[in-house]
Amino acid sequence: MKKTINIISLLALVITLFIVIISCGTGVKFNNILGSSSIGGGGGTGGNNLNFPLFFDGNNNETFSSIVPTLDGGYFITGQASNGSTIDDALFVKLNPDLTIAWSKLGSIGIRGTFGFENIENGTPYYYACGYANNNGFFISKLKSDGTTNNIIYFSNSISFILPANNGIISNAGGISKFDFDLNNLIWNISNLNWGDANFITSNNETVGYVRYTSNDGWLVKLNVSDDYGSNVISSAQAAYMFGISSVSFLGGLKGNNVFYFGFQDNNQNRFYLIKTDSYLEKRGEVSINGNFNVSLVPDPSSNNVILALYDRSNNNLVLIKLDSTLNVNNSTQVKISNFRPYYEYSYVMYFTPLTSNFLIPGEFNNNGLIYTFDYNLNPPCGNTSSSNLTLQNTNNIQIDTTPSEHPNLQSGNIEVDSEDTATTDYQLTEINACPIN
Q: What is d(CA 166, CA 19) in angstroms, rounded to the nearest whole number?
């Protein structure tokens, strides 16, 4: 039965992150980035380094959108199962530490899951996921440790990404929003700040979004999301004015070692931009490329290098580009994978997961869900990559003024939310011993 959850007024709210350590006690690091979740920080309690592809076959078409380490050494996967007629649903998979399947569930909510994470609450693991629901809606789902439903909320505002903070869930629903962990209350919403399709929360509870002024300019805005008073979050915001490219779409951000990375799409020029700033939003570098791409960015935890991943929609292949700390394209290396498709080709952002020695690439091939692994020198554990020569350029088109004379007028908003505890159902998956890389 459907019921409306409580929406807490910003005025009436009276209650006495990129997370580095979750204060709820997961011990799992969150270093979330443009199109990827740097969760776990590499093995140990945050998940094992994988050394081979994981390939899964069900009775329908399966694709994986995200994979994150869990406290027990396993992984939590979100994705989609569909057959074009009777099944079109979000897919949730829990892997054991030995990488066997603990459980696999359909959400019974449609259409696809996009991103998820584990959170430990009073010693008990719960699994959160978000994505697209039936009837042009969207959802956040909270699952119990056995994959059964704890709670689900639905709304009409688009959502593709969520992160845990120490006192709630931050999402990109309706701009940027904060919910409580029980999914019973909307704590605050800022309706005109774009949090992108992937982002970070720092150890100081800070994150950065984008506020559009015109189609050609706007502000990068730094927020502290720990406060449960939306008015305080707004009043303490810091802004830097950004201009220089036309028809801007903000894709999201990554926190590196005392630096930030941000992704933008120039829709008029069909050009993707990656910029690097210091923690004060002073610009430190820029690369860009023309074309139609899905993108992800993965930090190398042992260096200041980053891996830029570009799924080339025109040629149907995935290109991995290793960039140094200066983003100098002359020092970059590239490899290409043919046997890969992202979870949803028409979404700009992909969610790749860095571990200590390698990183994970969720997606699909030949209608089967898969997880590829690569080390930070772009070597796969099996198979062979191909050479690539995408024309990535060092440019200087985006300009940032960190002491602007004008600041954005952040607007508090609301999200109409319904709750319906739809039961998950078992879904049969079989692991395949295969190496489909090229």
A: 8
Return the sign of the alpha-carbon dihedral for residues 362, 332, 384, 70: negative
Beta bridge partners of 257: none
Note the CATH number of domain 17-403: 2.130.10.10
- Decide if pLDDT at 12 tops 50: no
How far apart CA 423 and CA 109 sit, in angstroms, is 9
Angle at 428 between CA 426 and CA 433, to 5 degrees: 145
| Predicted local distance difference test score (pLDDT) of residue 48 | 60
For residue 35, what pLDDT is reported? 37
Give the distance, in angstroms, between the CA of residue 283 and the centroid of all CA atoms in the same chain: 23
Q: Are 344 and 350 in contact (CB under 8 A)?
A: no
- Residues 158, 183: Cα–Cα separation, whole Å: 17
Strands (E), 291-366: 293-299, 306-312, 317-323, 333-337, 353-354, 358-365
- How many other β-carbons are positioned within 10 Å of the β-carbon of residue 339? 19
Q: What is the pLDDT of residues 415-437, one digit of tens each?
A: 999 988 789 999 999 998 888 88
DSSP state letters, 350-394: --BEE-SSEEEEEEEETTEEEEEEEETTS--SSS--EE-----EE
Q: How far apart are CA 312 and CA 413, in angstroms?
A: 37
The single-letter DSSP state of residue 44 is G
Cα 437 → chain centroid: 24
pLDDT tens track for 66-86: 999 999 999 999 999 999 888
d(CA 97, CA 157): 36
24 CB-side CA count, 13 A: 24
pTM of the model: 0.90
